Amino acid sequence: MGLLDSFEKGLERAVNSAFAKTFRSGIQPVEIAAALRSELDKKAAVVSRDRILAPNTFTVRLSPADEENMARLGGALTHELDTLVHQHAKAQGYSFPGPVSITVTRDEQLSTGTLRVDSATGQGGSVSWRGVVDIAGKRHPLVKARTVIGRGSDADITIADAGTSRRHVEILWDGTRAMVRDMNSTNGTKLDGNKVTEAALPPDSTVTIGRTDIVFHVIAQSAPPKPTMSADDATRIFDIRDGGGSA
């Protein structure tokens, strides 16, 4: 039987990730487990329809007295906590961008019976987002701030579709936000079935030009390049996402 098995019924008692409530008898393993579960749930981010990204680096801060008590359990405690974090992530459908790391440390500012959990997502404590488009079964990363798509050889992504213009549509991507803009094409551009001139481009949405579907996704990566975009274009994306664009 593991250290946390006897506390299983108490795991539903969520502990605030910043400042936990005070326990008269000091922190118990179940409180740490509950705090980690709570942190996973609070920080999980929806990346796409089939992926929810969760933090993978955790620092559990305890008062000097509580840290001394937990230290007596040795590596068994962190092993149990690691197992619990993986089990909870699997049950909730969360995925991690890298290996899970849990560190229990002493914080002189905390009083006995109080804990704090800090977390980060990604390798090295950070994660960034990458825009990609899927066209005819092939994935194209958006490595530029402005990506032109059409049937012309001068387009950034060339598609074999006679129903599209040579430079039909462009995708603007600033590393966190995206926009689609029709480039005065002959047959127009649709976003999720609705004709648009320019519009904010949400993750997992479909842009249709001619007979071609362009599916936009945002995926996580540990150390991505961030496209360079002009201040005007970046402001335009922000304005459109807030409802100021045309359709």
UniProtKB/TrEMBL annotation:
<dbReference type="InterPro" id="IPR050923">
    <property type="entry name" value="Cell_Proc_Reg/RNA_Proc"/>
</dbReference>
<dbReference type="InterPro" id="IPR022128">
    <property type="entry name" value="FhaA_N"/>
</dbReference>
<feature type="domain" description="FHA">
    <location>
        <begin position="147"/>
        <end position="196"/>
    </location>
</feature>
<dbReference type="InterPro" id="IPR042287">
    <property type="entry name" value="FhaA_N_sf"/>
</dbReference>
<dbReference type="InterPro" id="IPR000253">
    <property type="entry name" value="FHA_dom"/>
</dbReference>
<dbReference type="Pfam" id="PF12401">
    <property type="entry name" value="FhaA_N"/>
</dbReference>
<dbReference type="Pfam" id="PF00498">
    <property type="entry name" value="FHA"/>
</dbReference>
<protein>
    <submittedName>
        <fullName>FHA domain-containing protein FhaA</fullName>
    </submittedName>
</protein>
<dbReference type="InterPro" id="IPR008984">
    <property type="entry name" value="SMAD_FHA_dom_sf"/>
</dbReference>
<keyword id="KW-0597">Phosphoprotein</keyword>
